[in-house]
Write the structure tokens for this entry.
Amino acid sequence: MWKLGRIFAMFRKELLLAWAVLRDPRAPKAAKVATVLAALYVVSPVDFVSDFIPILGWLDDGLIAYLLLQVAFKFLPPELLASLQSRVGARTQAKTAR
């Protein structure tokens, strides 16, 4: 389970942006589907590279999830992507200011 924690720490902004994509009603369904597929791949026991190979297995999960999230962000209209990125940026800055 700590694999998810490490992936979250590495891709914090991308994951917050993915969460914003899932919650925003203006986001296209294709972006939401790609985001859900990224999450499912990380938690799925079926991988391209087995997690029994410590570094390669985790790298595989992180890389595939990152690529799927980038595909999801490509489906977003540019103005929606900019709006969500500014909202996520403001949220992360507010947390670091505390």
The chain is about 80% helix and 0% strand. The mean pLDDT is 85. Residues 7 and 62 are 6 Å apart (CA to CA). The two ends are 28 Å apart (CA to CA).
